[in-house]
Structure formats: C-alpha cells, structure tokens
Specification:
about 210 residues, 3-stranded antiparallel sheet, mainly alpha
Length: about 210
C-alpha cells in the first residue's frame, strides 16, 4: 500500500513539473513573439517617418551614384528607384508628384517649393546643384535632406553630393556650350591690343 502511494506521489510530482515546464516554454515563446512584433512595429514606424521629398532626393542621388555617366533620368526611373529602395515602406502616392512638381527647382511651386531636382528637359530630372536656375518663389528653399532626418545608411550620400557638385563645377567648361567658347577668339587680337582692335573695327562707321 505504502509503495503504491509513493508511486502515485511521484507520478503527480512529475506531471506538475511537466505542466510547469510547458507553461514556462509557452510563456517565453509568447513573450518573444510580442517583443518581435513591437520591434517590427517600431522599425516600420521609423521608416515611414521619412519625408517624401527626402525619399525622392535619396532615390535620385542613388541613381546618379550608380550611373555616373548618365546626366539625368526620367520621372519614371526616379519613382521606380524609390519603389525598389523602399525607404519609406510601400511607395507613397506623394512620391510621383514630388518628382514631377514639388521638388523641381525650375518649376513654379504648387505648393511645395523644394529645390532638390532640376528639370533638364520635359520628363527628365537630375539633382539640383547651386548655380542652376530656379523659380524666384523657391528662393532659400531646401536643397538636400537634413542629416538627422534620414536613415543612417543613407547619410553618406550627403558627402557624395558635395563631391558630385564640385566635380560638375570643374568640368562645366567642357560640357557647357557657352562656357566652352571662352577664349576662342583671342587669336583675333593676339598681336594687337583689344582697344586698338575695337577702334579699328569701328573705323568708317560714321
């Protein structure tokens, strides 16, 4: 009798231990799932907080950096790059209108007045840089994202942009048709002072 009672007690204790262990595992798994959901929610919320204009600038900058020989890009190429990068999560409707209008420096503001893109020709854009023409109503408007407003993985683009602008200024005489004419007529007065050359041209005008 006593032996049977001891056996029943052992079985009861074993069942309690198994039940307690199962509870512990279930509790831990449930806690891990909740924590994972919380982290995922925070990550999504952080990504979606990026401004649409900043997302557009990043997409255009990535295209320029990836294709340095390409001077500009179509509106669709910039929108597609933003979509594939997914910086703000699923593509937002505002991305397209920012590429078409709000971010374009040389278009009238309506109402966005950023100076992040430049319209090179109808339907094509590149990053805006100082020295480009822009609509007077966009004077003083934002050109690049603020570093603290974009994810850390894209902050290096701001340094790249400064180098890109400097390189464009250095090669401007080679690519600009007007600047490339500088000094092209100097042979006309190579052996004559400029004032004497002009005076000679004017002889007989009256």
């Amino acid at each position: 009798m006593r032996r049977d009672k001891n056996r029943r007690d052992e079985c009861s204790t074993l069942r309690k231990r198994r039940k307690h262990k199962s509870f512990d595992i279930s509790f831990l798994l449930g806690l891990e799932l909740v924590q994972h959901k919380e982290v995922s929610t925070v990550a999504v919320a952080t990504k979606s907080c990026i401004k649409v204009a900043d997302e557009v600038w990043i997409a255009a900058a990535l295209l320029h950096r990836e294709q340095p020989a390409q001077p500009d890009f179509t509106v669709e190429e910039i929108v597609d790059r933003a979509m594939s990068e997914g910086i703000g999560g699923p593509i937002r409707p505002g991305v397209y209108v920012h590429v078409v209008q709000h971010c374009v420096a040389n278009r009238p503001p309506n109402p966005g007045r950023y100076r992040m893109l430049f319209e090179t020709t109808n339907g094509r854009r590149r990053l805006f840089r100082k020295g480009d023409a822009y609509h007077p109503a966009r004077e003083g408007a934002k050109i690049t994202p603020n570093m603290e407003d974009i994810p850390s993985g894209y902050r290096g683009l701001l340094a790249w942009y400064r180098d890109w602008c400097s390189a464009a200024v250095n090669c401007a005489p080679e690519t600009d048709p007007l600047l490339s004419l500088a000094g092209s007529g100097k042979h006309l007065w190579a052996d004559e002072h400029a004032d004497d050359y002009v005076r000679r041209l004017r002889e007989g005008w009256e």
